[in-house]
Amino acid sequence: MRTKPHALCIGAGAVGRGLIAPKLIDAGFMVTFYDVDKNVIDRLDQMKYYPLVGRGVFKWIGPIGVYDEQDLICMENDFDYIFVSVKANNLSIVADTIRYIIENNQKKSIVYIIENLNDAAEKFSGMLNDVGVNDITVLNGIANVVVPISPHQEQDPTFTVYDPNMELVLEKTKDAPFINTARYVNEDEFNFEWLMKFYLHCSVHAFVAYWGIQNNFEYIHEVVTSSPHDAIVSGFIKMISTAMKVHYPDNAKEIDDRGKFEFKCMADHLMMDDVYRVARDPIRKLEYDERLIGLLYFLRISLGNFICDHDSYVKLVQMTNNAIDCAGLTPDSLLGEDFWQELPDATFDTFYYGVIEELRNDWTERFSHNTNS
Fold this sequence. Notes:
By secondary structure, the protein is α/β, with parallel strands linked by helices. The protein folds into two domains: 6-185, NAD(P)-binding Rossmann-like Domain (Rossmann fold, 3-Layer(aba) Sandwich); 189-370, N-(1-d-carboxylethyl)-l-norvaline Dehydrogenase, domain 2, CATH 1.10.1040.10. It contains 15 helices and eleven strands. Strand 1, helix 1 (14-26) and strand 2 (30-34) form a beta-alpha-beta unit. Residues 369-373 have low confidence and may be disordered.
């Protein structure tokens, strides 16, 4: 009879293999991976363990039960937890997978959604409701720091860099038993954690990726470890930290410490992420609450008009225009995207006249060959 709790990890990428699974295994869980990448699944299934490499230490974690889609359908379903860590545009597919699992599961599962989405649990609950799943607890989770798996992925698709600074932060609720290697926070604290991760890490990371593309850099670390590029990144982190302290004045020291930590991570040789990988799905990063335009809006509403005089802000506006150009968009076509339709009129006006107008003016000057403005 099985005594260990059983967790299904949907998504066997950097977060699933490099953070969620090791944390769960340390807590005594049996882990099953589910992923659409057959190369990874076949390799993991063959090995029953995988290498975690970090700080010069080669460490093996295992054994791990691994199943592809057919195995998932045929296996005896008895998952206590389901952890979801996939690209946002794959969540609707995951909702269908979870519907099947819930219908055939022997016990009631708790779903943690580990995503860089604002209100991810609420949004994913809506997706589950759409496919007829409405009696399940969905909670927010976040991978505080992620060390990517490339460029070694081509050598071994299961190679995963593990950094001991990585942390699994889960939303605290009476319905979810504690996992002893995770940190639990309440809803307000989680929102704060998400903002720190999203703005201090993801926004700067995305900026550096697009900047690297412009300057023909192959790896992110080549951008942030040589002057003046590290000064640009440091300036952005300082500016974003200042904006965050407007919303969370009681957490000023924590924000400053996190900013210093993020800059250190961005200069870490382990962060050799391919630029093209970070800049994938550029349209998604251009949504109004996402990593590029969303950051502009966040800075605007936090720091006011005077931020326009800040050299880093000007660079960010220019870089965002380049991101729009990389995505094959114009300011006009960008405003026609569906994700803008959900904005309240007042918010849209503030955003339009505070940010998009600048983007349009700068775009006209810099990319007149690719705009109707």
